[in-house]
Amino acid sequence: MAWAAAIAVTADATAAPRQLRVCAEPDSMPLSNARGAGFENRMAELIAGELGAELAYAWQPQRRGFVRKTIGADLCDVWIGVPVGFDRLLTTRPYYRSGYVVVTRADAEEPLRSFADPRLAALRIGVQLVGNDLAATPPGLALARAGAVDGVVGYPVYGDGPTAERMSADLAADRLDAAILWGPQAGWFARRDAAGLAVTTLRAPDGFDLPFDFAIAVGVRQSMPALRDEIDSALQRRAREVRALLDAYGIPQLELGAEARAPAPAGESR
To answer: What domains can be seen in the chain, in order of their start residue?
Structure first.
C-alpha cells in the first residue's frame, strides 16, 4: 500500500492553496487601493493570515451594482467594511462603529458642531454626494433642512480620487470653511494635511429620521455561512490588532452599542 500513500501525499502537495477572495475598490484611500495601502487592505491581510489562506482581490469601483458585478459574478466572496445587517450579504459582528464628522482648519476660531449653529447659512460647507443621481448623504439633507443651501458645495463620490482628499485639499486652500465627511474617510487625510485640519464628531439634528452612524462588519457571500463564522472568530481573536489599525488610520470611533448584533448560527438563512 506504499504506492497509495505516495499518491495521497502527491495529491496533497499539488492541491490548490486556499484563497480568501476579496472584492475591493482600487482607489478609495484610506479604506483601500490597488497598492494595498488602505485600512481594509490591512484587514484583509490579517483575516487571510488567520485563515491560512492566500489573499486574492477582485478590483471594482464601488458604483451601483457593486455586489452584482463582483460577488454575483463569482469574482470574490468577501467585502470588507459593510454596515451590519446589509441584506445582500451575511455579516460578521461589527469591529467598529463610526459616523459623520466635521473637518475644519485647525486655526478656525470655532469649529462647526451642530446643525443649529447660526453660522450655517454663511459658511462654505463641502458635503459628499453619492449615486448616479448625485443624491445627498444624510448630512447633506440635514443641511438643506437647516436652511444652509447657498454655501453648500457638493462633491460627487464618483470622481478623480477620494472625495475626502479633494475636500481636505479645498479646506487647506481656504476654498471651504468646513467639510462634512464619513469619519473613516476623514481622519486619515486630516492627519496628513500639512496645513493642519481638525476633526469634530457631528450628531444628527433632533428628530432627524436618517442614521448618522453605522456599525461596520465584514460581508460574506450568502451561501457561505461557515466562512462568515470563520472570519468572525478571526476578528474576535485579533481584536487588539484591529483596534490598533483603526487608531493608526485615524478612524473616529463610537461605542458599538446594544444594536450591534451577533451573527446567526452557520446554516441559518437570512
So the answer is: 18-96+214-248 (3.40.190.10), 99-201 (3.40.190.10)
